[in-house]
Amino acid sequence: MESEHEPRLRSVVSYVQRGGRMTVGQQRAWERQWADIGRRVADLPPGPIDFAGWFGRPAPVLLEIGSGMGETTAQLAAAEPEVNYVAVEVYEAGLGQLMLRAERLGLENLRLLHGDAVIALKEHIEPDSLSGVRIFFPDPWPKKRHHKRRLVQPDFVKLVASRLAPGGILHMATDWEHYAEQMLEVCSAEPALRNRFDDWAPRPSWRPVTKFEHRADQEGRISRDLIFERVG
């Protein structure tokens, strides 16, 4: 959640504030699991997170920004048990639902951060430490006057690139054509990143189709993936 002190720390936040309360099931999942697998970004002590200590093992750390209701996140974490999978999301009900999904799947390699991913990246994640960052279907801010609010901007991409280990992957997906073009332009201009493809990446078969992507397809919007690699 945003405090009166946070706005001066960044120009673009990683989320849109949403309303809505948790369901009884989500609240119970939160009460059962949050103390073990969740932390609030605003409550983190100064300095980098000790991911190996938090997960109880050293392993590649993959950060997903904006896990929503966890539909994709839970499946991806389940498919990669060898990865320390970290999801950051501001929407409490979404994290509650993700915990329900994680519980059903018996996930042990998932940890959750509640709050702004930009602050987490800047203040609590070491440079050159992440094996990957995933940003799937961020808020598109489709109106032209709102494009400046989009997450994928030059300063943000530079920050993400600095936190990736050499060879680490930034994988993005969006169903908004103009946002996809902006992502491609911004990431191509970042010298620390290299596009693994000429432009769009083939849609990975392992990325689950969410209800939002299915709706976009029904509405005639094409989903595009972009996969960039940290160089140097």
Automatic annotation (TrEMBL):
Sorted UniProt keywords: Methyltransferase, S-adenosyl-L-methionine, Transferase, tRNA processing
Pathway of action: tRNA modification; N(7)-methylguanine-tRNA biosynthesis
Residues the entry annotates as binding substrate: 143, 175, 210-213
Binding site for S-adenosyl-L-methionine: 64, 89, 116, 139
A Pfam family hit: Methyltransf_4
Keyword match Membrane: no
Record-linked InterPro entries: SAM-dependent_MTases_sf, tRNA_(Gua-N-7)_MeTrfase_Trmb, tRNA_methyltr_TrmB_bact
UniProt cross-references to SUPFAM superfamilies, sorted A to Z: S-adenosyl-L-methionine-dependent methyltransferases
Catalytic activity annotation: guanosine(46) in tRNA + S-adenosyl-L-methionine = N(7)-methylguanosine(46) in tRNA + S-adenosyl-L-homocysteine
E.C. number(s) listed in UniProt: 2.1.1.33
Entries under Gene3D superfamilies matching the protein: Vaccinia Virus protein VP39
First-level EC class: transferase
NCBIfam families, per the entry: tRNA (guanosine(46)-N7)-methyltransferase TrmB
Protein role: Catalyzes the formation of N(7)-methylguanine at position 46 (m7G46) in tRNA.
Family according to the record: Belongs to the class I-like SAM-binding methyltransferase superfamily. TrmB family.
Name the record gives this protein: tRNA (guanine-N(7)-)-methyltransferase
UniProt gene name: trmB
